[in-house]
């Protein structure tokens, strides 16, 4: 037996733990970094959109956003519908983003070291297909 799910889970844990070790001195954790990265590339999103994109339960995303807001990294604003809250990066987070991105990119480079372009293309196709399969359950 190969236990692919276990291997994927273990790799994700090691990556997150290592990323936490690198990012925490800069004021972020891996779960927060995922939100920051998403907001950087997608601008303002609702909490529901963030929750759906990151596949994180609403209470968890709310707690993480509250912490990011307290730290000054995000801004939450009411939308047209009072039940809707839009989230965007604060000016301070925009300023720090390059530093965070560099640290995350350096770790990613270490994780992908010695993988050639063909292997990375296969890796990306496999991850995409696995996500599609899991989202159809």
Describe what is shown at a glance.
The protein is mainly alpha-helical and 137 residues long. The protein is 69% helix and 9% strand. The chain has helices at 4-23, 30-42, 47-54, 58-71, 91-111, 117-135; strands at residues 45-46, 74-78, 85-89.
Structural features, described:
By secondary structure, the chain is mainly α. The protein is built from six helices and three strands, in the order H-H-E-H-H-E-E-H-H. It has a domain at about 25-115: Winged helix-like DNA-binding domain superfamily/Winged helix DNA-binding domain (Arc Repressor Mutant, subunit A). About 70% of the residues lie in helices and about 10% in strands. It has a three-stranded antiparallel beta sheet. It starts with a helix and ends with a helix.
Main traits of this protein?
Arc Repressor Mutant, subunit A, 6 helices, 137 residues, 69% helix, globular, mainly alpha
Reading off the top of the CATH hierarchy, the class of the domain at 24-113 is best stated as Mainly Alpha
Task: Detail the poorly predicted runs.
Answer: none
CATH architecture of the domain at 24-113: Orthogonal Bundle
What proportion strand?
Answer: 5-15%
N-C termini distance: 22 Å
Gross morphology: globular
* Main pleated sheet: 3 strands, antiparallel
- Which series of helices and strands comes N to C? HHEHHEEHH
Radius of gyration: 17 Å
Please work out how many helical segments DSSP would assign: 6
Instruction: Classify the secondary structure makeup into a structural class.
Output: mainly alpha
How is the CATH topology of the domain at 24-113 named? Arc Repressor Mutant, subunit A
Domain HTH marR-type: 1-132
GO molecular function, one term: DNA-binding transcription factor activity
Protein name: MarR family transcriptional regulator
Keywords: DNA-binding, Transcription, Transcription regulation
């Amino acid at each position: 037996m190969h236990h692919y799910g276990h291997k994927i889970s273990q790799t994700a844990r090691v990556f997150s733990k290592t990323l936490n070790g690198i990012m925490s001195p800069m004021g972020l954790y891996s779960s927060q970094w995922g939100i920051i990265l998403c907001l950087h590339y997608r601008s303002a999103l609702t909490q529901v959109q963030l929750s759906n994109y990151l596949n994180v339960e609403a209470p968890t995303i709310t707690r993480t956003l509250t912490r990011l807001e307290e730290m000054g990294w995000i801004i939450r604003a009411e939308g047209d519908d009072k039940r809707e809250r839009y989230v965007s990066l604060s000016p301070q987070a925009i300023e720090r983003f390059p530093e965070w991105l560099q640290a995350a990119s350096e770790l990613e480079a270490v994780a992908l070291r010695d993988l050639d372009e063909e292997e990375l293309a296969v890796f990306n196709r496999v991850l995409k297909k696995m996500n599609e399969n899991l989202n159809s359950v």
